[in-house]
Amino acid sequence: xxxxxxxxxxxxxxxxxxxxxxxxxxxxxxxxxxxxxxxxxxxxxxxxxxxxxxxxxxxxxxxxxxxxxxxxxxxxxxxxxxxxxxxxxxxxxxxxxxxxxxxxxxxxxxxxxxxxxxxxxxxxxxxxxxxxxxxxxxxxxxxxxxxxxxxxxxxxxxxxxxxxxxxxxxxxxxxxxxxxxxxxxxxxxxxxxxxxxxxxxxxxxxxxxxxxxxxxxxxxxxxxxxxxxxxxxxxxxxxxxxxxxxxxxxxxxxxxxxxxxxxxxxxxxxxxxxxxxxxxxxxxxxxxxxxxxxxxxxxxxxxxxxxxxxxxxxxxxxxxxxxxxxxxxxxxxxxxxxxxxxxxxxxxxxxxxxxxxxxxxxxxxxxxxxxxxxxxxxxxxxxxxxxxxxxxxxxxxxxxxxxxxxxxxxxxxxxxxxxxxxxxxxxxxxxxxxxxxxxxxxxxxxxxxxxxxxxxxxxxxxxxxxxxxxxxxxxxxxxxxxxxxxxxxxxxxxxxxxxxxxxxxxxxxxxxxxxxxxxxxxxxxxxxxxxxxxxxxxxxxxxxxxxxxxxxxxxxxxxxxxxxxxxxxxxxxxxxxxxxxxxxxxxxxxxxxxxxxxxxxxxxxxxxxxxxxxxxxxxxxxxxxxxxxxxxxxxxxxxxxxxxxxxxxxxxxxxxxxxxxxxxxxxxxxxxxxxxxxxxxxxxxxxxxxxxxxxxxxxxxxxxxxxxxxxxxxxxxxxxxxxxxxxxxxxxxxxxxxxxxxxxxxxxxxxxxxxxxxxxxxxxxxxxxxxxxxxxxxxxxxxxxxxxxxxxxxxxxxxxxxxxxxxxxxxxxxxxxxxxxxxxxxxxxxxxxxxxxxxxxxxxxxxxxxxxxxxxxxxxxxxxxxx
Length: 867
Hints:
The protein is α+β, with helices and mostly antiparallel strands and 867 residues long. Helices cover 28% and strands 19% of the residues. Strands 4, 6, 10, 19, 21, 22, 23, 25 and 26 form a nine-stranded mixed β-sheet that branches. The protein is globular and about 80 Å long.
């Protein structure tokens, strides 16, 4: 399962500690090719006054509407423990030993850093690269698939590995970059000692074409590829000029390979629909299903299965008549019954352009549940239905018994539309929790569901479970099925708008398969923890590379909407000027081309603590802290403990990196990390750790989504983004404080999986004006979340309504602070008249929850000044 932890053995290290002396280099000035200077983005929908200055050293991508979110946080770590992986990580193959080569002079790095000063034939004379202490930003700006928590690394182990302030990266293996990576249609050059890839930072001998590995410093041949008269010629090779490159093998040697032109239509989508819904839910579901099939590309192959006490497999060859074959739901389908079904006269997978009328007929023919049985007590054979869907996708395959799986292009997808728990047949649990054997049956169901998910993953099929309605679906039983297959489980209030959008986005999101990520680090940097949608990878790299100490992770799917949180630390004091991180990502893309994506990062090392702190990327660090924290919060009591841990982290960061106030025992939180405390405050009181959500199943689903989510969605799930509507259709970005609840305004609050639109009472009383503001807010909400998966629910309500509590509970109660603190942290207040401020103050209801400033004072820490 994707959030399991596996402890590395004591003393485990992935970093590589070379024993061979580093080749000496003559030094000369290093002129670097730097990216263009950062300029804050603007967007026409936002008032010019709302654009905030960039976060220091920002490497972060823009949101879809062109506005850069500014909500910082540094990286923290739970108290130090053994390295863990949310899904297992392969331990190192063994201690590193460099090959016994004699140190040789090194020519230069192919990185676009130093123009040649003279020609060298590479035989007796060499070009040398100067590795200055200047900041290296090439890889940070050009490799957005890797977002680092800091742009520099401290040389002192004791300071670098402070438990309350960790170091790491968010790796988004499947993220599509605007300009795309450099494409190379050939096999990569790899170090024969450790398996690392040649890259723009390698030192290269011009005459012989040999290159020195940045990870283990081994000297390797290049089969003549890197022989060149000048450095400029080498820069024509993409892997020596760019930090991220894709090596593509288009000739696919797998059995069952399908040509590119046909591959997309070969990956089917099978809908598995709950047949036990009451009429209101069924009507919403039917509307969403009709809209869904109308939105599909015409070549998409589709199948429809429904389940209650029996499994109904719908025949798509019957014109416009809904016709189904029935299979028992109390047992798994036998191979014989599946063969009879598939070899029969029916068609169960068909391109949508050929079967659209009959699919609509099938959806229209669904009928509400007609027995007087409570929702939770109805017989639902979801497990058997998913097995049948898998059988339809696989088709008649005698090879399966021999362990050979046919691989159509792309990942097939099963989408389950569920309104209740699996209570009948394989993988089921009793209707009632009071059943005397419930714990044992639940444990058995968990194992069975996980096994079915793994079988689906082997067959290159992902299972998404979209739940809706008021009936509890027993989330702990269903999660293993989605996780193990590389899919997702999402809860919805109903089968309406948000459900329909997620149905469409689930089916169309691009997903690579057969993914493997290898992480290699230099100079005593070691991977201590990985969190994300993966598990232990069993590779045989040690047979090809005798000292391959990489951390290897099998990715359950390769999607743009996912990321891995990689925590790192140092095993000793660093003596070099730079450290190197390399991420090798191997996967098959949508068209079954084999991709090897190589991302190499170089970070300067520093002695100065303030220089290190100043290089921290608040938002990336914030997400890393939150993921490490949420990994421990598996239950409600765990969440309470984690909130306490966050308090202790604030104290520890302050005591280690803050400054003591004159004539006082109080410490000021470090100014370099000024955004951290407020975002951690949002984390501890929000839906991920707080008590905002009503049921533990909801928090569990949010936690799973968050642990696997991309950087953008993760950040929004931690810290909401507050936007106030202004005249002319523009929006002003404000701190997410309750002081934004001004009666004459409309406010949009984006909290990742939920977007709220709040209309003040004065504005709502003006019918025409409020309608225009509401339309503008809804348009903005849709723009902000256009590419987001899961798609959030979008709720709109008026001030004082019962639903407004969703909005209020997510805002920091800053109305409790004295006026000078309010103005410092919420400057927009200064634009209000005395009468407006008095009216705003009188609108708040007093309750006991502390404001941010009160919380900090309670920790005996002085909050950093608002920036």
